[in-house]
Design brief:
alpha+beta, 3-stranded antiparallel β-sheet, 3 helices, 10 strands
Length: about 170
C-alpha cells in the first residue's frame, strides 16, 4: 500500500514537470516573435514626437502638433496633441480643471510618468482629457463620446501612448 502511494506521488510529480516544461517552452517560443514584431513597427508622428502605430487605429494629421486616431470598429476616437511647454503639466492640468465643468479627475503614475485624467461623464458615454509630460514635452490625449463598454480599451491605448511616445527632434 505504501509503495502504491509513492508510485502515485512520483506519477503526479512527473506530470507537473511535464506541464511545466511545455508551458515554459511555449513562452520561450513566443519571445523571438515578439521581438521581431517590435522591430518592424511603423511609427506615428505628432509634432516632434512619435509612437508605434496602434492596431485597428487609423491616424489622420490635424495640424503640425496634433493628430486624430480612430478605431471605427469600436467607435473610439482620440486626439493626441503636443501642448505648451512654458508651464508645468500640473499647472496646465489644475488651470484646466478650475476653468471647466468636469465630473471627476484622477492622477495615475504610468510607469514613472504622472498622467492627469479629467472626465466628463454622461448617461451612455463620457469624454476625457489626459495630460502628461514625457521627456520634457507636454501632451494631451482627448476622447469624446467614449462608450462605457469601450472604456478599458480607450484607457489602455492612452497608457500605451504614454509609455511609448518619444521625442524625435526639438520642435
Amino acid at each position: 500500500m505504501m509503495d502504491l502511494k509513492k508510485l502515485y506521488a512520483v506519477l503526479i510529480l512527473l506530470i507537473v514537470i511535464y506541464v511545466g516544461i511545455n508551458v515554459g517552452s511555449m513562452v520561450i517560443n513566443l519571445e523571438p516573435q515578439q521581438v521581431e514584431d517590435n522591430a518592424t513597427e511603423n511609427l506615428i508622428t505628432v509634432g516632434a514626437s512619435s509612437f508605434p502605430e496602434i492596431k485597428n487605429f487609423k491616424s489622420e494629421t490635424i495640424n503640425d502638433t496634433a493628430l486624430s486616431l480612430t478605431d471605427s470598429e469600436k467607435n473610439v476616437t482620440m486626439t493626441i496633441s503636443e501642448i505648451d511647454n512654458s508651464r508645468s503639466i500640473e499647472d496646465i492640468f489644475n488651470e484646466y480643471v478650475a476653468n471647466t465643468e468636469s465630473t471627476s479627475t484622477q492622477t495615475i503614475d504610468q510607469n514613472g510618468t504622472p498622467a492627469y485624467f479629467v472626465y466628463y461623464q454622461g448617461e451612455e458615454s463620457y469624454g476625457t482629457n489626459v495630460f502628461f509630460n514625457k521627456n520634457g514635452q507636454n501632451y494631451m490625449i482627448s476622447g469624446n463620446n467614449i462608450d462605457y463598454n469601450s472604456s478599458n480599451y480607450f484607457i489602455n491605448n492612452c497608457k500605451n501612448i504614454i509609455d511609448t511616445i518619444e521625442i524625435n527632434s526639438i520642435s
